[in-house]
Amino acid sequence: MPSSAHREIKTRGGRTLAYAEYGRPAGQPIVYCHGAPSSRVEGDLIVNAETASALGLRIIVPDRPGMGRSDYQADRRIVDWPDDVLDLTQALGLERFAVLGSSGGGPYAAVCGARLPDRVRAIGLVGAIAPPDAPGMLASMSGPLRMMFRLARVAPAVLRGLFRLNLRAMRRGGDRARHRMAAWAPEPDRQLLERPEIANGFMACFQEACRQGPRGPVMDVGLIAGPWGFDLTRLQVPVLLWHGEHDGNVPVMNGRYLAGTIPGCRATFFPNDAHLSVPLNHQEEIFGALAATAV
Fold it and tell me: What is the rounded CA–CA span in Å between residue 166 and residue 74?
């Protein structure tokens, strides 16, 4: 179910930070960290507002800097993200909250727990990526994803150009773009992406990420592909993890590495799911478990 129109706050540094909300305004808060390259409209694809409301949750999905409607932040680092989350939650009057990171949003959720342990009740990781220096992580990924990571680090201008080409292809492709995207996906993501509303929602995440141009999304990918700047083994906040065994975007070895590295991580691996199907098919289980842990 779509969110209401985007909302904005100003950070302490004067930047605009845009976000969307789902569920109950007075519900238990969860800050959702979108994937990469993506944006706050990922909530329209991933978050079922009726499910969130039924569980008594308030899901808040901010655009990271330079994506969607959030101002670009030069020279930012992953470890700077908790400052924005703190500004956002303080503006909303939230003392304590959970964080949930999907795919490339995983490190951003984890760093909130590392830097804001007195504020973050629990961390959820869904199909989350492992650090780039994890043994075998890069080798496990598809060729296009490895190339994207490498270009973001060593030739960001080239990746910006490729993102522009991808945007044009999406806008001109119509049904062909949807079918081509579905053909590349593993089951059961393929079945989901054959549904126009799912495929269009997936493409909208990228299109909105590039609202200001590809500079912000390319920087975001480069940060995820480089040193994260914090130690996963020192996390003291409860961590729950969910990953599909057939994930073709972020192979399951990423989830297994995180589960074995983060102290006390409670991991669930779905033998018949992939990347999109985990959050779309197991949303009530994921949100419910995270909410229960965050009490």
Answer: 24
- 197 in any annotated domain: yes
> Helices 196-209 & 156-173, crossing angle to 10 degrees?
140
Count how many domains the chain has. Answer: 1
Q: Who wins on pLDDT, 173 or 272?
A: 272
CATH number for 33: 3.40.50.1820
The tens digit of pLDDT for each residue in 19-59 reads 999 999 999 999 999 999 999 999 999 999 999 999 999 99
Q: Which of 83, 75, 77 is nearest to 115 (CA)?
A: 83
* pLDDT tens, position by position, 158-170: 999 999 998 998 8
In a domain, 35, yes or no: yes
C-beta separation of 17 from 10 below 8 A: yes
Establish if 2 belongs to a structural domain.
no
